[in-house]
Design brief:
The protein has 3 helices and no strands. It is mainly α. The protein has 2 domains: about 35 residues, no CATH class; about 55 residues.
């Protein structure tokens, strides 16, 4: 989607560079979230949504060849993954046992 041919070396370097920079940005945001005191379930839901969104975006673009619809699908999948992850974490959370 950037307009570079991945078979050439320059296009591959740009693709790898963009992927690495997005990975490092996500990790820095997660470290920042941990330092300001955001809970682990929210951070793990953020990681899941950051991973799922781009893949759904690419799959939708490949299927429909429409950048607008693929971005909407990717963003919606990210939001849905975040919500489902938070809800599952709350649902499966163990309550501490009370000792009498």
């Amino acid at each position: 989607m950037l307009g570079f041919n991945l078979k050439n070396g320059f296009g591959s370097l740009i693709f790898i560079g963009v992927g690495l920079s997005l990975t490092f940005a996500t990790m820095l945001i997660i470290r920042f979230m941990a330092r300001i005191g955001i809970d682990r379930p929210v951070r793990s839901a953020f990681i899941l949504s950051a991973v799922i969104g781009p893949y759904v975006n690419m799959a939708a673009y490949h299927a429909w060849n429409s950048p607008v619809i693929s971005h909407i699908a990717g963003f919606s999948a990210s939001i849905l993954a975040f919500i489902v992850s938070i809800l599952l974490d709350k649902l499966l959370e163990r309550k501490p046992e009370q000792v009498y």
